Amino acid sequence: MQINITGRNVKQTEALKDYVTKKIERLSRYLDKIINVQVKLEVEKYRHIAELKIHIEGHIFKATATDRDLYAAVDLALDKVERQISKHKEILKKHHTKAAGKRTEEEEFHKEEEIFTVVRQYEPKMSTPKQAVKEMESQSSSFYVFINTFTNKLNVTYKRVNGSTGLIELDY
After folding, report:
1. 119 lies in a domain?
2. C-alpha angle with apex 59: 58 to 62, nearest 5 degrees?
């Protein structure tokens, strides 16, 4: 991490540089990859201004603070940046959880419920495949579930896209 401290009408003492450096290094616990930090300190009569720019991969955090004391202005600017960082991390967390598609079991259950618009209870009757096709056509349905009288297995007759009729025999 590179820290650039510049000043206008400010005497840059070692104590001031150490103070700013220690405060900025504290931000490394919030951010892993800080590329560059620019600190601009300025004095205008009785106003002390601290301006921070923190460059990370893909984002820049900026904050400016004014106070009668230069050290207090630095603290205020750092507080602003910390709030920006925490908001940024919250947004990233929300974004990543949505992108990952993590859902609770309850959300999955409700999602599955929405798939089915009509749910019917049905008790299949004994029938031959020919009778099942006639029954399906008389009900104007695209399928018919029945128990095959020849095999005693659950069967489904259905209309295919090309207009013919299909038969599914379930092995259970």
Report:
1. no
2. 160
Q: What's the pLDDT tens digit per position in 41-86?
A: 999 888 999 999 988 888 888 999 999 998 999 999 999 988 888 8
For the chain, what is the largest distance between any 2 Cα atoms, rounded to a whole number of angstroms? 102
DSSP string covering 43-96: EETTEEEEEEEEEETTEEEEEEEEESSHHHHHHHHHHHHHHHHHHHHHHHHHHH
The closest alpha carbon to 39, from 5, 67, 79, 12, belongs to 5
Whether 90 and 145 share a structural domain: no
pTM: 0.53
Please report where in the chains the tokens 């202005």 appear, as a residue: 73
Same domain for 139 and 89: no
How many CB atoms neighbour CB 135 within 10 A? 15
Q: What angle do CA 34, 40, 46 make, to 5 degrees?
A: 145
